[in-house]
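Figure 3 (text version): structure tokens given as input.
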């Protein structure tokens, strides 16, 4: 009886939809891994408040219809006081250029996000960051999510 139950679940009406959903999630994860962002930021903080200017670029993947994205943003953030782990929330505004093949869009962007700075050794810290970009104009994707991981120097 348990063999019949397993076959019914495997071949039931929801199994095909579940497999298709899983395949879509796997494809999106593969695209995200191929389209990793690279960038640099320079800023200053004063115990709780800070600001930074950042530039980031993501290459396009025409085979998966994933556009490249370049952003130049000015951000302000509020953070917890110094400690082993410092949490922060930020708001930003700037410009972007989205490109896929010959099509491109350049316009204004805003961002909101947050993250943590984790002390590693001396002034060296690991920075983990999540942001949502809202792209103005007529981009292919008006809302872009990014996760960052990088190194941060405290001085």
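Below: residues designed for each position.
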């Amino acid at each position: 009886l348990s063999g019949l139950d397993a076959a019914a679940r495997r071949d039931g009406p929801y199994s095909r939809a579940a497999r298709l959903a899983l395949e879509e999630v796997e494809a999106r994860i593969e695209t995200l891994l191929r389209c990793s962002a690279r960038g640099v930021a320079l800023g200053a903080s004063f115990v709780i408040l800070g600001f930074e200017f950042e530039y980031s670029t993501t290459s396009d993947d025409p085979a998966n219809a994933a556009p490249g994205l370049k952003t130049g943003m000015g951000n302000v953030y509020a953070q917890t006081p110094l400690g082993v782990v410092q949490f922060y929330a930020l708001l930003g505004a700037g410009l972007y250029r989205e490109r896929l093949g010959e099509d491109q869009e350049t316009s204004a962007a805003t961002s909101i996000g947050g993250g943590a700075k984790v002390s590693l050794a001396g002034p060296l810290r690991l920075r983990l960051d999540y942001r949502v970009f809202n792209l103005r104009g007529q981009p292919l994707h008006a809302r872009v999510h990014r996760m960052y991981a990088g190194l941060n120097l405290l001085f």
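The longest strand covers residues 103-121.
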